[in-house]
Amino acid sequence: MAYQALYRVWRPQRFADLVGQETVTQTLKNALMTDSISHAYLFTGPRGTGKTSAAKILAKAVNCRFRQDGEPCNQCETCKAITAGRLGDVIEIDAASNNGVDEIRDIRDKAKYAPTVADYKVYIIDEVHMLSTGAFNALLKTLEEPPAHVIFILATTEVQKVPATIISRTQRFDFKRIAPDTIVDRMAYILNDMKVTFDDAALALIANAAAGGMRDALSILDQVLSFGDDHVTLANALTVTGSLSGDVLAQYLRTVNAGDTAQGLTIVQKSLAAGKDPNQFITNLLVYLRDLLLYRQDPKLARSYYATTDPDTFAELTKAMDDTRVYQMIDVLTTVQAQLRQTTHPDVYLDVLTVKLTTLKDKTAASPAASEAAVPAQLAATVQTLQEQVAALQKQLAAGGTAGSAAAVPAAAPKRSAAPKTHTKVHVNLEQINQVLGQATRKALEHQQSLWGELLSMLDVAQRAVLHVGTKPVAASASAVVVSFDYPMMFARVAKDQVLREQIEADLKKLDGNDIAVYFVPKEEWPRIRKNYLVNHGPGKKKLPKDQSAPTAPTSTAASESAAATASATVDPVVAKAQELFGSFVEIDSGEPNSTAPQKQTEDGVKQNG
Fold first, then answer.
1. The AAA+ ATPase domain covers which part of the protein (predicted)?
2. N or C: where does the chain have the smaller number of CB atoms within 10 Å of the terminal CB?
């Protein structure tokens, strides 16, 4: 018989041989033992973790008439035929090359026919995420109501590409990455069975390079066996995988940590001359640095072959390099690794990387010293300034007494108190807003409020995002409208945007039919602006009589109506103007009935809701 690859020779034939997936295998065995077999299964997970192998074992188990504890016997004719791929009732389909609607319709039509030899007709569809949308739709109905003698087993490495309607009609099993220790044990079992000697460090290196895939590990092991005859050595494993030895990585880190750029570049050039891949160089460095951090916390946490084969070197480097230094190196390595994907000269990036790593020490050493020197200098300058101010105040007290000090202290106050409000006053056009208020009516305001939502829908997405939240018309006349902003930041942005203002005015003209000027105001400033206008530009104020005592014992309806008429006749003109401008937004606070300043009470009692 022709030579077969290790992963084919040692493909699991029983659930017990499927290592690293104990949860999946136990669940399937329990279902077989209780005859709780589903019509459709979905196996997901990374490559080389046993999805297709589990599908074939399940196909054998459901059709084996001599199974024990959920395991196929592998001795009957049915099991042997499925293992050899000769049984026509077990159909394996590669969805990557059979992803059209016609292929799935053919499966759907043939699924109606009963199996010829086995008890169940099993369809194994590998890489099912490669099916087209039409193919998934064609498969959907068959998955929902399949014939009693049909079982579908779907396998995929990218379950996120499978429609939710397909997933919901299957039993999903997630295959996890296999732990390096489990891979090492399996390879050791195979090599012992083959009577081949090996280095433990070589198997650990292969397991780490396989990234959780048993098939990848056996493929690498096959290459190492071919390269080194009947002994698996660490040197051969390093050559086949392209990885760097722990000695080279440790020497490189010592060099860059010492700031020796020339020696670091020499190590890089030797590695490249030996055929090492630049991306693999960086990947190995990242793994090594990660294990340094873990080793510092607990030596048992560092599980790579670098840490397990040379713990003394790890202990030395953890003392020589602090965590901050390691974190900075990892950041630089990650950045350069991303840049390597977009360049045709990776060796140049490795040289630049070496220079960066060797100069990191100077930066980290200089930064703390500079910062420590800067802080006392700042404190000294602040203390000196305060001392000069105290001395000046003492001289003023001695020369001018209390009056001088009183005059000196408030001098700086206006500058400090006026600063917070400048950002809103700069942009509010009070003259134009007062002109709008002079011609404003409640009807015009209600009309503009009714148009505001439609106006926002006419703007583009970016403009609408600025105006969508916390804006509304608060005053309007026949030719202008005032819009308030809940958020000062948004107001400041819009007030400077002349293009947006012109766009709003153009859209308002389309909706209203007239030229409408638009002015903006922050919500926090609007009550003050409104009140100042009413006080300074409102109609003449009519003082109320000081004696507001009610008639004695009003008992009749006529008396009540007379009192109401009297009250309405004495409404302050300012209040009347506010009600005319702002409508239902105005509340009137009548104050205490025995107030001694009714005119002041009425003017301050006008306030806006919301």
1. 37-179
2. N
Question: 353 and 248, same structural domain?
Answer: yes
Domain count, the chain: 3
| Whether 165 and 216 share a structural domain | no
Same domain, residue pair 116 and 161? yes
For residue 228, is it within any domain? yes
Which residue, among 20, 16, 41, 17, has the nearest Cα to 29 in the 3D structure? 16
Q: What is the CATH classification number for the domain harbouring 147?
A: 3.40.50.300
The reply to whether 169 and 215 lie within a common domain is no
Residue 273 has pLDDT above 70, yes or no: yes
E strand intervals along 402-501:
471-476, 480-485
Is residue 81 in some structural domain?
Answer: yes
- Are 227 and 170 members of one domain? no
Report the half-sphere exposure of 195 (CA within 13 A, side-chain side): 0
Give CA angle at 335 (330, 341), nearest 5°.
125
Residue type, 49: T
Is the pTM above the cut of 0.85?
Answer: no
From CA 241, how far away is CA 219, in angstroms rounded?
11
Using CA atoms, how far apart are residues 491 and 524, in angstroms rounded to an integer? 11
Would 477 be classed as within a structural domain? Answer: yes
C-beta of residue 480 within 8 angstroms of C-beta of residue 517: yes
pLDDT digits (tens, 9 = 90+) for 10-30: 999 999 999 999 999 999 999
Give 560's contacts (C-beta < 8 A, 6+ positions apart). Answer: 554
Q: What is the pLDDT of residues 579-606, one digit of tens each?
A: 555 555 555 554 444 444 444 433 343 4
- Could you tell me if 132 and 277 lie in one domain? no
Place of tokens 């995002």: 465
pLDDT band at 538 (very low <50, low <70, confident <90, very high): low
Token pair for residue 144? 């929902």
Question: Is 338 within a domain?
Answer: yes
Which DSSP string corresponds to 124-164? Answer: EEETGGGS-HHHHHHHHHHHHS--TTEEEEEEES-GGGS-H
pLDDT tens sequence across 161-201: 999 999 999 999 999 999 989 999 999 999 999 999 998 88
Q: Which segments within 53-107 are labelled E, that is strand?
A: 90-94
The C-alpha atoms of residue 515 and residue 479 are separated, in whole angstroms, by 6
Banded model confidence at residue 608, pLDDT cuts 50, 70, 90: very low
Judged against a pLDDT cut of 90, whether residue 55 lies above it is answered with yes
Residue ending a domain, among 134, 156, 176, is: 176
pLDDT of residue 128: 93
Q: From 126, 152, 176, give the residue that closes a domain.
A: 176
Sequence-distant (6+) residues with CB within 8 A of 507 are: 455, 458, 459
3-state helix, strand, coil in the chain (%, to 5): 65, 10, 30
Tokens matching residue 460:
């583009």
Phi, psi at residue 477, to the nearest 5°? -125, -170
Length of the chain, please?
Answer: 610
Note the pLDDT tens digit of each residue in 131-166: 999 999 888 888 888 889 999 999 999 999 999 999
Rounded CA separation 302/80 (Å): 44
Note the pLDDT of residue 575.
55
